[in-house]
């Protein structure tokens, strides 16, 4: 799976400000794709703090990452020439360690506040932003307000949202409340309008180098295939949802950059990247793009990845680690 993250970083570094000589601070917002362990510090069922999560991490212990080892923020930190930023709620993230940045992401969150309600006390985006303001105040006490503002302006900021608003909201049940309220097109327009507000707020908070990750091919996740696929094909309805979302998100990013008269936001197309892997997995070192490495049931896509789950022998040849996470 490391080759997937390597490819993603190459795409991200098409923007000149990502691949810089001196390591900038790095701030991470979003969901389980980028959560490095904040949910270990809150009372929620959306946790990855049990074996075999972390089996290939340097300590071979679970860290809260929804991965067998490192996750995307770790690989980006390495590309920036820096140590991985710590979860903001990690007690050891204090003093000069804060100057590297922080990870505010929380598994289960979405753009909407009713996304992921089944996970209880996850750290929703408004709260992630509140923590960011708190972070800036803490750093200002160390280096001063002006230097803090400069640190944030020169930092890499990434935000990853959207998938849960479909998988854990609109399509969570056969007929969800949101599906009764909106058509797929109307729902997508609604969540994109809410996402735009968050992106504008991120700019107001000082973000000037913001990497916005698209949603991946939702219909191809083992957890979706297990309930919506007969022969291993990607679920068409969720693929359509992802395409609608990404197209409108790209339009929003172009508009925001035009208003700012600067390349503040960069769109990272994880959907196209992953579909390229599905088309030619061997080119990227993958053998199995259908089944999760860890899980049970059809495509190993049912339920949680636990000690009693099926576990593949070679994690590097599987595109997906568990039911939803590459």
From TrEMBL:
Highest taxon above the source species: Eukaryota
Entry annotated with the keyword Transmembrane helix: no
Stretch forming the signal peptide: 1-22
Pfam families reported in the protein's UniProt record: Lipase_GDSL (PF00657)
GO biological process: lipid catabolic process
Name of the protein this chain belongs to: GDSL esterase/lipase
Family: Belongs to the 'GDSL' lipolytic enzyme family.
Keyword set, alphabetical order: Hydrolase, Lipid degradation, Lipid metabolism, Signal
GO molecular function: hydrolase activity, acting on ester bonds
């Amino acid at each position: 799976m490391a080759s997937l993250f390597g490819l993603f970083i190459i795409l991200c570094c098409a923007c000149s400000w990502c691949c810089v000589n001196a390591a900038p601070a790095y701030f991470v917002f979003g969901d389980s794709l980028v959560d490095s362990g904040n949910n270990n510090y809150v009372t929620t069922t959306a946790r990855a703090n049990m074996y075999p999560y972390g089996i290939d991490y340097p300590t071979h212990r679970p860290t809260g990452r929804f991965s067998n080892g490192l996750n995307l923020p770790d690989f980006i930190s390495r590309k920036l020439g820096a140590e991985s930023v710590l979860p903001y709620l990690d007690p050891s993230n204090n003093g000069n360690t804060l100057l590297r940045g922080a990870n505010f992401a929380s598994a289960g969150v979405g753009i909407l506040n009713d996304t992921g309600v089944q996970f209880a006390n996850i750290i929703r985006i408004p709260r992630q932003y509140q923590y960011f303001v708190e972070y800036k105040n803490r750093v200002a006490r160390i280096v001063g307000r002006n230097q803090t503002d400069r640190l944030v302006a020169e930092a890499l900021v990434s935000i990853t949202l959207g998938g849960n608003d479909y998988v854990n909201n609109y399509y969570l049940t056969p007929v969800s409340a949101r599906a009764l309220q909106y058509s797929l097109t109307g729902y997508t327009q609604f969540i994109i309008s809410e996402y735009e507000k968050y992106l504008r707020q991120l700019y107001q908070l000082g973000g000037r180098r913001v990497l916005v990750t698209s949603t991946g091919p939702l219909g191809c996740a083992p957890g979706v295939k297990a309930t919506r696929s007969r022969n291993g094909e990607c679920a068409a309805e969720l693929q359509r949802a992802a395409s609608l979302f990404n197209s409108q998100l790209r339009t929003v990013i172009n508009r925001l950059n035009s208003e700012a008269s600067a390349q503040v936001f960069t769109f990272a197309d994880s959907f196209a990247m992953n579909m390229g892997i599905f088309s030619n997995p061997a080119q990227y070192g993958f053998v199995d793009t259908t089944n999760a490495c860890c899980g049970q049931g059809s495509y190993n896509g049912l339920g949680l990845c636990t000690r009693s789950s099926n576990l593949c022998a070679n994690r590097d040849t599987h595109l997906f680690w568990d039911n939803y996470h590459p």
